Amino acid sequence: MESKRKAKIIYLDSVDSTNTYLKNMALNGAENGTAVIALKQTAGRGRTGNSFVSDEGGLYLSVLIDTHCLEIPETTALTSCTAVAVAHALKDAVGITPGIKWVNDMILNEKKLGGILVEAGRIADGRIPYVVAGIGINVNQGRFPETIAGMAASIRRETGEKYPVDAVSGAIIARMDELITNISSNNLGGYLKEYRELCVTVGRTVVFERNGQIITAEAKKITEDYGLLVTYRDGTEEILRCGDVHVRGLEGYV
Backbone phi, then psi, for 37, in 5-degree steps? Predict the structure, then answer.
C-alpha cells in the first residue's frame, strides 16, 4: 500500500520518547498525520507507565491523529484500531500477521513483538483535539535483555531474516494514513471485526492484579467498545477496560 501523504515524517537517531517529542510538536500546531521515527529511545514507555526496551534494531514510531471529529468515548477505540492497522502493515511489509493481546500488544509465536501506546491531548471544548499513537516493533534485534528474553520476539528472531526497518515503517505509516482517513469519514466499523479476529486473548484463562489481589478469569469476548468480557469461577461476568488492568496468560505472557 502506497501513501500519498503531505504531513511531515521526522527521522531521529535517538530520542527520549517519540510520543513525548510528537506531543510537544502537537502543542505547536503540528499537522494531522505528522510522524516521528527514531532508531532508538532512551526513555520508551508502555501502557500503565511500564518501560519499553527501545534498543537499535527496532522501530519506534509515533503518529499524530486529529480527533476533533470524535466524541470522547470514541477515542478509546483508537488503541485497538491502531493495533489492527499495524497487524495489516506487517503483513504488507514482511508477510507475517501478528496476533493482538488485549489490549495493545502485538504477538508473534506466543511472544511480544511490539506494543502500542496512545496518549491523548488535553480536552478542549468537550473534545479531545488529538491523540499521539506510539508504535514500537521489534524488527531486527538478535537478542534481548535477560529479564525479557523469554517473552520477547523480533521479526528477525522468529523468521531468521533481517528486514529493512524503513520498509516496515513505510507500511505502518501507510496503514495509519488509512486509519486517519477512516476517522475523518466516520468509517471505523470494520476495525472491530478485524480486532476480534486477530485477538489472541479471547478463549484463554487470564490473570490480573487488582487492589493487591491476583484474580483469575476466562476471557470470553471483545465487546462493542473494545472491552474484554471475562467470566469468574463463580459464574459472574465483568467487562474489563483498557485503563483498569493489565492481563496476561495463566502460564505465560499471552
Answer: -125, 135
Rg for the chain, CA atoms, rounded: 18
As a 3-state breakdown, the chain gives helix, strand, coil percent values, each rounded to 5, of: 25, 30, 40
- Rounded to whole angstroms, the Cα distance separating 118 from 5 reads 21
pTM across the whole model = 0.92
Query: What cell was used for 54?
Result: 527501545
pLDDT per 10-residue tile (average), the chain, 254 residues = 73 94 96 96 67 76 97 94 98 96 94 95 92 96 86 94 95 97 94 97 92 92 96 96 74 75
In whole angstroms, give the CA distance from residue 119 to residue 131.
5
Pairing of strands 9-12, 35-38: parallel
By C-alpha distance, which of 131, 124, 127 is closest to 32? 131
Give the distance from CA 231 to its chain's centroid: 25
Q: How far is CA 158 from the centre of its chain?
A: 20
Q: Which residue has the cell 501478528?
A: 98
Alpha helices by DSSP H, listed for the chain, are: 18-27, 72-75, 78-94, 155-159, 165-184, 189-198
pLDDT at 47: 57
146-174 pLDDT, tens digit per residue, is: 888 889 999 999 999 999 999 999 999 99
Cell of 87: 497487524
Looking up cell 493487591, which residue turns up?
212
Q: How far apart are CA 79 and CA 83, in angstroms?
A: 6
CA torsion through residues 212, 218, 220, 221, sign: positive
